[in-house]
Design goal:
- The complex is a heterotetramer.
- The termini of chain B are far apart.
- Chain B is built from five helices and no strands.
- Chain B is mainly alpha-helical.
- Chain B is flat and about 55 Å long.
- Chain C is an alpha+beta fold.
- Chain C has helices at residues 2-21, 35-67, 83-113, 168-171, 253-266; strands spanning 122-129, 132-137, 174-176, 179-182, 186-193, 198-202, 207-211, 217-222, 227-232, 245-251.
- In chain D, a hairpin with a 2-residue loop joins strand 2 and strand 3.
- Classes of the chains: A mainly alpha, B mainly alpha, C alpha+beta, D mainly alpha.
- The structure holds heme-A (2 copies), dinuclear copper ion and copper (II) ion.
- Residues 37, 40-41, 44, 48, 51, 54-55, 58, 90-91, 93-94, 97-98, 101-102, 105, 158-160, 421, 425, 428-430, 433, 436, 464, 468, 471, 485-487, 509, 512-513, 516, 519 of chain D line the site of one heme-A (HEA).
């Protein structure tokens, strides 16, 4: 600045107001920020896994069948669609449809989690643990369980959130925006799975 | 004075797209997901397979981000913030890969092996 | 108060600079072939950073002195050119300064780390462990016998896990607790750690490299002055970290040969 | 003035009535800010106490510190500190200072208290997250402290916890057992707490601004907190999984960070396949942004205080903000400068060195803007402005030494020596601390409704300013002479002659530490018996000074959100109230604008 007063201040402060620069309301902003942070968390895990896999002389490829993971992927992707329909219905004011779709989504999450746990148990049955597995490089079990475990934790959290928000939405305590925010999180969990499947499962497929 | 511009506070993403659009996107994602499984059964080396899968996964994620999560319908500023910021941070995380390569081959400046054997 | 403060800043800045200018505490004299660019880089940086340091501290002091006693009616004034001066100054002066130094520094770094040792460099192996260094010379056959981690044992004095009964290459290897190297001969130091991270730091040699468990590293250097120096560990490795050190003797070729013979006899 | 109902869709809660809701599990950002301040104060006292013990030991290694065995009978038999106990205290000192003082006080404490007020909001949008953020951080602190009393005591691995030392457990020696796990749990919790805080800070800044408060009308302190929370968002999100993997390595037998074939204490370790460089990459990916998380709020606070006391706007408000932004961006690209000689690919060293060198440019711009703004100002000298000016001096000193370390060729000589210790204590242990002090002297009247004692404040400043230079300047000389850090004694021949310097430093540290008691006394005395503070004691312009009382009422502005008419720092103008015009004043003035 040089001397005070280069321009005469426009007195009508309305010209410059405190409008959110992104026009994204606080709750939605918060979930997006959380998603960004969570993306960094998952990326750190995946980078660590890639780092170690890339640096290992051999890496086990124990997965024979893709049936289970195809099923899981299909269910999770579909649950994203049902979520979307739920939010859309909520925005259009159709409360009961919104609630129904939300519960269907949560059910998809539950099925996904159950399939996932079944798969885990099968692998544990084959002798795979965090620090040991029958196929060699021990880090395989550690990275598999920690990455899919983190994802499973997110799914579980998502199911709980869907149920809680869904029920409160129905009872009128929460509104369509809250449902939308929960939906964003659910889509993100889905999005992470799109990276987990190829890197953790498909790259380790037996040939 | 009157209240701040209420309209400006309203989200840009309004979830009024026709259901058909969602279903098309959903199908696209399903196809891409299937593509990954197909790639898994091609006979290329791990690096190439990884690159292809990453590419497909990014496309899938892009669709989900833009249309399922409605980023495309938000203000461009917000889209840029999310994509550029996240992308930058995730890229900055990739500095370490050369050290991963060295885990097997040792340091690039050490030619003779020191003779450590793995039993 | 403000004047006192200004004077204090200047006094502190100058007092801080005196030990640097007088080299009261300074880096040990260089005895290595590759150290010259490092030392030049150091003195260049010291000069430029020193000037920046003194200039900015003194400027701060002068401004505090001058502008803390304004009279009631006085108007505020603006630095000539405003913020633009500052931004341009930072980009032009500091920008060129750091980039120039960065380029020279990168070159110095490259001459040390991006070059392979010459073929007739003398290989010596060093192993770090809690809390000692051990050295291995390949002996007359010029070959290091393989290391068997399961045989490594302090208790049996088998520091490198050698199997002299089965590995012919290991038979004549010479293991020592001190390091000796011949003068003016390039050394190819093969480094590994048997347990946790450690570091190999010889200030006089301008050599500083961490041991990375699970990774074989190597460095190469040439000593240009006889003498006895200290190798210290600079990577936190546990309770004995402070006491983890070894001596490095730079000997004439003749002395070195004698020393090696002596050590071989003790195996 | 407009009605608060405009904001009714977010965070409107009634004043609490019960004691617990008022003072303990409070949702009020002001109470939470004070709680963070209290936590930082407790933490800094513990951390400072530990540094005294360390210093006494470094100066006089064989001096029995009376009563030390009461703290730990294993760690200090006969009141003499064992080598491992020294390292344990050092690790705790650093962890407490970096995480629980420097991230909490300037960022979480002042940020919580003043960010919502400075943007003209009633509260943060998610008061419950805010409360959780504090209590999770508090729990993290308790977990960390508990490691003093569990098993063989806290971890000795340094605040960087390099693996495999920290991952293999007690075989690697004392201080590597439960202490590491508690450390990692504590830091993991801390990350969660700060993530919750960052969410609130960012949404408050973006969405809760009052009418007329455009982004460029935000005070610089708000910008500092805002930019810091964006950094914190991703930095902490990476440290947290790293800590979890470290815990798994430690307790579940995985080997993410432990390579094969290690022989520790003559036992071949069961781990295989991990990488110690991986830990370093993950840690420093967080670690470097973290040091800017520690300094940027301080820079913001100091700018805010300087402007007020210079009675003129900054030479360029926007340039400062852009520079903060540049620091934030660059801070993600430089982290490898901590690993130049750690066995990282030497090519990467060059790739990390240049961004590190370039980061000095925005830092220089910040310093030059401060200096240029001093020119032609009408500087007022008081405790707050003295500490703010001291911050500049300290930041220059510490920043310049960073410039040496940024060059890998020189780092060969300086890495892991006291030069590094000197560098980071100058910027972090002193400059950032000065930011806290300046903030305290400046905002205390608003936070507690009473003035602090200026005389004591000035004495405190002089002793601390001179004292910290006496402590931390000589560290650089020690480093040049090759004195290695993290040593509990200096048995190497060439380090023996340096011990007298350590003795000098110890004396200086004890005296400087003692003079902090003046601050403590001032704080407590003024809290209860200080002179009552007027609403705007410094004739400042930003919104926190236009609240109807000190401390502000529960909803900050007494039922009416303010409306903002001006850029934040309208000093040096002819206003009806003197040489300044408050942001809320509807007066027509000729705006004092910056150019660049
Ligand atoms: C608040 C914290 C903080 C801040 C702001 C900084 C700022 C900087 N740091 Fe520092 N640093 C730490 C905290 C901090 N650091 C910590 C905690 C460690 C050690 C961790 C550990 O190992 O335990 C560390 C370690 C550290 C290292 C690793 C050393 C080693 O271990 O070998 C390096 C190397 O590049 C470095 C560089 C820098 C640089 C270039 C800056 C720059 O941003 C500084 C820029 C500022 C200026 C330059 C001053 C102002 C400018 C002028 C006055 C103009 C003229 C000046 C010149 C042209 C030089 N720091
Ligand atoms: C913010 C960070 C911070 C602060 C303030 C300090 C403060 C001090 N430090 Fe610390 N220190 C570190 C961070 C810090 N340190 C780190 C990261 C390490 C590295 C550890 C490692 O290697 O892993 C370290 C290591 C370290 C060592 C090296 C150990 C070694 O390598 O062997 C030494 C040695 O003397 C030391 C000494 C001191 C002293 C004497 C003080 C002080 O006593 C100076 C005097 C005190 C003050 C100037 C201000 C105190 C402030 C207040 C009383 C009030 C503040 C108000 C509120 C919070 C509300 N420290
Ligand atoms: Cu070995 Cu420190
Ligand atoms: Cu750094």
């Amino acid at each position: 600045m040089s001397q005070p007063g280069l321009t005469l201040e426009a007195h009508v402060a309305g010209l410059i107001t405190g409008i959110p620069p992104f026009s994204v309301p606080a709750k939605k902003m918060a979930i997006w920020l959380f998603i960004i942070a969570d993306a960094a968390t998952f990326a750190a895990c995946l980078v660590a896994y890639g780092f170690l896999r890339n640096g290992s002389a051999s890496w086990p490829r124990p997965f024979h069948s893709i049936t289970n993971v195809v099923l899981m992927t299909f269910i999770l992707l579909t649950s994203s669609l049902t979520m979307l329909l739920g939010v859309r219905a909520a925005k259009a004011g159709d409360k009961s449809a919104a609630f129904r779709w939300t519960m269907i989504t949560a059910a998809g999450g539950v099925i996904f989690a159950l399939l996932h746990i079944r798969e885990w148990l099968a692998l544990i049955g084959e002798g795979m643990t965090l620090f040991h597995n029958p196929w060699g490089t021990e880090l395989f079990g550690a990275s598999f369980f920690s990455i899919t475990g983190l994802h499973l934790l997110h799914v579980t959290g998502g199911v709980v959130a869907l149920l809680a928000v869904g029920i409160r939405y129905k009872s009128g305590r929460y509104n369509a925006d809250d449902l939308e925010v929960t939906g964003l999180y659910w889509h993100f969990v889905d999005l992470v799975w799109m990276f987990v499947v190829p890197f953790v499962y498909l790259l380790n497929l037996a040939h | 004075m009157d209240t701040p511009d209420v309209k400006a506070n309203e989200p840009a993403a309004r979830y009024t797209d026709p259901i058909g659009k969602y279903i098309v996107i959903y199908l696209c994602i399903l196809v891409l997901a299937a593509l990954q499984f197909v790639i898994a059964y091609t006979h290329v080396d791990t690096t190439a397979m990884f690159a292809r899968m990453l590419f497909v996964a990014l496309a899938e994620a892009g669709l989900a981000l833009m249309f399922f999560m409605h980023l495309w319908a938000e203000k461009r500023g917000f889209l840029l913030f999310v994509v550029v910021f996240t992308g930058f941070v995730l890229l900055a995380m990739q500095y370490g890969w050369t050290d991963s390569n060295r885990m097997e081959v040792g340091a690039p400046y050490s030619q003779p092996k020191t003779g450590v054997v793995t039993q | 108060m403000a004047k006192l403060f200004a004077v204090t800043i200047i006094v502190i800045a100058i007092l801080s600079a005196i030990p640097i200018l007088r080299h009261t505490w300074w880096t040990a004299p260089d005895v290595s072939m590759h150290g010259l660019p490092i030392d030049e880089q150091m003195s260049e940086t010291m000069a430029e950073a020193g000037i920046s340091f003194l200039a900015s501290q003194i400027l701060l002091a002068i401004f505090i002195w001058k502008f803390s006693h304004s009279k009631p009616g006085e108007k505020i004034r603006t630095f000539p050119g405003g913020a633009m001066t500052m931004v341009l100054g930072a980009f032009l002066l500091v920008g060129t300064e750091v980039l120039a130094l960065g380029a020279f520094g990168a070159k110095a770094w490259a001459t040390i780390y991006f070059t392979a040792p010459t073929p007739n460099a003398m290989p010596i192996q060093v192993q770090s462990g809690q809390f000692a260094f051990y050295f291995r010379y390949p002996g007359p056959d010029g070959k290091f016998g393989p290391i068997h981690p399961d045989l490594i044992s302090e208790a049996n004095q088998n520091f490198f896990g050698l199997d002299t009964d089965h590995d012919p290459d290991s038979k004549d290897d010479i293991v020592t607790a001190e390091m000796a190297i011949p003068l003016n001969r390039e050394i190819h130091l093969l480094m590994h750690s048997k347990d946790v991270g450690h570091s190999f730091f010889v200030p006089e040699l301008r050599v500083h490299q961490d041991f990375v468990p699970g990774l074989d590293l190597s460095i190469h250097f040439t000593a240009t002055k006889t003498g006895k120096y200290e190798i210290v560990c600079t990577q936190l490795c546990g309770l004995g970290h402070y006491n983890m050190k070894a001596y490095l003797s730079v000997l004439s070729q003749e002395d070195f040969d004698n020393w090696l013979k002596q050590q071989a006899a003790q195996q | 003035m407009h009605d608060m109902s405009a904001h009714a869709h977010v965070a409107h809660h009634a004043p609490p009535t019960s004691f617990i809701r008022k003072h303990i599990f409070s949702l009020d950002h002001k109470v939470i800010g004070k709680q963070y301040y209290g936590l930082a104060l407790v933490a800094v006292l513990v951390g400072m106490f530990l540094s005294w013990l360390m210093r006494i030991h470094l100066g006089w290694t064989n001096f029995p510190i009376p009563g030390l065995h009461l703290l730990s009978s294993n760690g200090a038999p006969g009141n003499l500190m064992t080598p491992e106990y020294y390292l344990q205290l050092m690790t705790m000192h650093a962890t407490i200072m970096v995480f629980f003082v420097l991230t909490t006080a300037p960022f979480a404490a002042f940020g919580n208290y003043f960010l919502p007020i400075q943007v003209g909001a009633e509260d943060m949008p998610f008061p419950r997250f805010n409360m959780m953020s504090f209590w999770v951080t508090c729990a993290a602190f308790l977990v960390l402290i508990s490691s003093f009393f569990v098993g063989e005591g806290p971890t000795l691995g340094g605040w960087t916890q390099y693996t495999p030392l920290s991952a293999v457990g007690s075989v690697a020696g004392p201080g590597e057992g439960s202490g590491v796990v508690l450390w990692a749990i504590s830091i993991g919790l801390f990350c969660i707490g700060q993530l919750l805080g960052a969410l609130n800070f960012i949404t408050t800044t973006l969405d809760m601004r009052t009418k007329g408060m455009s982004l460029w009308r935000l005070p610089i302190s708000t910008w500092g907190w805002f930019i810091t929370s964006i950094m914190g968002l991703t930095a902490f999100a990476v440290l947290m999984p790293a800590c979890i993997l470290l815990i798994l390595d430690h307790v579940a037998g995985t080997s993410f960070f432990v390579p094969s074939n290690l022989v520790i204490s003559d036992q071949l370790q069961p781990h295989s396949g991990g990488s110690t460089l991986l830990w370093q990459h993950l840690f420093w990916f967080f670690g470097h942004p973290e040091v800017y998380i520690a300094i940027v709020p301080g820079m913001g606070i100091v700018s805010h205080i300087l402007v007020t006391n210079m009675r003129r706007p900054m030479l360029s408000h926007r340039t400062l903000v852009y520079s903060f932004g540049a620091l934030a961006v660059l801070s993600y690209m430089v982290y490898g400068h901590h690993m130049f000689v750690s066995g990282m690919n030497p090519v990467s060293s060059i790739a990390f060195s240049f961004p590190t060198l370039i980061i000095t440019i925005p830092s220089t711009i910040v310093v030059l803007i401060w200096l240029g703004s001093l020119y032609g100002s009408k500087l007022r000298i008081n405790s707050a402005s003295l500490f703010a000016l001291g911050f500049i001096s300290m930041f220059i000193s510490g920043g310049v030494s960073g410039f040496f370390l940024a060059q890998p060729s020189i780092d060969i000589m300086l890495h892991a020596t006291y030069f590094v210790v000197g560098h980071f204590h100058m910027v972090m242990g002193v400059a950032a601390m000065f930011g806290i002090f300046a903030g305290t002297y400046f905002w205390f009247p608003k936070m507690f409704g009473r003035m602090m004692n200026e005389k004591l404040g000035k004495i405190h400043f002089w002793l601390t300013f001179v004292g910290t230079y006496c402590i931390f300047m000589p560290f650089h000389y020690l480093g040049l002479a090759g004195n290695v850090r993290r040593y509990q004694a200096f048995p190497a021949d060439y380090m023996q002659p340096l011990v007298p310097v350590h003795k000098f430093i110890t004396v200086a540290a004890l005296l400087t530490g003692a003079s902090q008691l003046i601050f403590l006394y001032n704080l407590i005395h003024s809290r209860f018996w200080g002179e009552p503070a007027p609403d705007n004691p410094w004739q400042a312009t930003s919104l926190e000074w236009s609240t109807p009382s000190s401390p502000p009422p529960f909803d900050n502005f007494g039922g009416k959100l303010p409306e903002v008419f001006h850029d934040p720092y309208q000093y040096g103008v002819e206003g009806s109230s003197g040489d300044y015009v408050m942001q809320t004043s509807p007066e027509r003035i000729q705006t004092v604008r910056d150019e660049a």
